[in-house]
């Protein structure tokens, strides 16, 4: 049995507990079917990592490895693989139903893997997959934004939480699609980051939306992409959205949402979870492979750029606990990436 290094959890503990994430040794997996075995070079940390790790009354008999953003090199492939071969550099988010990327090697279905952009190093690439998939699916699949820039001329999108991980790439993709992008931010540094990444205008999500939009000359917006506190912004979104507009959120809520607020305007509401395709093995799983390759094309052409803001090394439990704590603070801009196992 070949072993590998990883970071795992046995108990679900507060991040300031040194046992919340631990350095472990686990069995190196073997690829079968359409799985790639990837030698992980860099990983990034997302809110989902902190949510899964958050304290709960549960224990694991063997260490559970988290992590859903990685870039690395294909080590081996299953018998049914056709998209990649050993030696290929890749980036991907993976499946929440499987062992994560916080280990030296990881199995991932090739249908949800993209080729690593040639102009990015592994850390720069690892910052992008989960957020890029979320943004792409949210914009083009859930909100049904046209891919034709001319058809989007004059149309507006409000991105709530424009400086976060998803917001940082969503603003770029929306701007690239030809939309007028209005981002929300509550601090000068996050507002500037959002502007630098494609936002045409900024409003404060701590204040009512409608008056701020009207001050900018917008009676309403055609699309809203909510990346922060759905229930807190619900009434503001219902007021700001245009008749027959569309709203998409990625943030679950413990409170009931009053959908009748959307009825008179015939507004569409949709959820986006980038794990859906892999979790349910949908017939169109390969769309994530395709969209990651399209994102790679746009990164190489300069139409999009990485959202990495902080590098940490090496990949170990101590550094991962620091990264989780920063993500849990809710004030991070862009993405935190860890690189290199030692």
Automatic annotation (TrEMBL):
PROSITE patterns (UniProt xref): QOR_ZETA_CRYSTAL
SMART domains: PKS_ER
Main subcellular localisation: cytoplasm
UniProt keyword annotations, A-Z: Cytoplasm, Metal-binding, NADP, Oxidoreductase, RNA-binding, Zinc
Location of this chain's protein in the cell: Cytoplasm
Stretches assigned to the Enoyl reductase (ER) domain: 16-338
Gene3D superfamilies named in the record: Medium-chain alcohol dehydrogenases, catalytic domain (3.90.180.10), NAD(P)-binding Rossmann-like Domain (3.40.50.720)
Domain of life: Bacteria
CDD domains associated with the record: AL_MDR
InterPro entries in alphabetical order: ADH-like_N, ADH_Zn_typ-1, ER, GroES-like_sf, NAD(P)-bd_dom_sf, Quin_OxRdtase/zeta-crystal_CS, Zinc-ADH_QOR/CCCR
Subunit structure: Homotetramer.
Sequence similarity: Belongs to the zinc-containing alcohol dehydrogenase family. Quinone oxidoreductase subfamily.
NCBIfam families linked: adh_fam_1
Protein name: Zinc-type alcohol dehydrogenase-like protein
Organism (species): Paenibacillus glycinis
């Amino acid at each position: 049995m070949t072993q590998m290094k990883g970071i795992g959890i046995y108990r679900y503990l507060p991040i300031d507990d040194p046992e919340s994430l631990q350095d472990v040794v686990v069995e190196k997996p073997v690829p079968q079917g359409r799985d790639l075995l990837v030698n992980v070079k860099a990983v990034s940390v997302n809110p989902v990592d902190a949510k899964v790790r958050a304290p709960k009354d549960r224990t694991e008999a063997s260490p559970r490895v988290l992590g859903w953003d990685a870039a690395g090199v294909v080590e081996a492939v299953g018998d049914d693989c056709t998209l990649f071969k050993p030696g290929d550099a890749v980036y991907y988010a993976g499946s929440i139903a499987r062992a994560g990327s916080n280990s030296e090697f990881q199995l991932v279905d090739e249908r949800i893997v993209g080729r690593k952009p040639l102009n990015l190093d592994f850390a720069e690439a690892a910052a992008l997959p989960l957020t890029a998939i979320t943004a792409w699916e949210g914009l083009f699949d859930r909100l049904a934004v046209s891919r034709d820039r001319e058809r989007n001329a004059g149309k507006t999108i409000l991105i709530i939480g424009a400086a976060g991980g998803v917001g940082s790439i969503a603003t770029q993709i929306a701007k690239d699609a030809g939309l007028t992008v209005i981002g929300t931010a509550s601090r000068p540094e996050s507002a500037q980051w959002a502007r630098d990444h494609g936002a045409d205008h900024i409003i404060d999500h701590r204040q009512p939306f409608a008056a701020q939009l009207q001050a900018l000359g917008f009676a309403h917006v055609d699309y809203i992409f909510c990346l922060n506190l759905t229930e807190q912004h619900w009434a503001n979104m219902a007021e700001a959205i245009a008749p027959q507009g569309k709203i998409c959120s990625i943030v679950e809520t413990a409170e009931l949402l009053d959908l009748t607020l959307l009825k008179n305007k015939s507004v569409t509401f949709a959820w986006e979870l980038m794990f859906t395709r892999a979790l349910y093995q949908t017939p169109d799983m390969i769309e994530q492979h395709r969209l990651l390759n399209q994102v790679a094309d746009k990164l190489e052409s300069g139409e999009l750029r990485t959202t990495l803001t902080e590098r940490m090394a090496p990949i170990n439990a101590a550094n991962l606990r620091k990264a989780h704590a920063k993500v849990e603070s809710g004030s991070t801009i862009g993405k935190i990436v860890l690189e290199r196992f030692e």
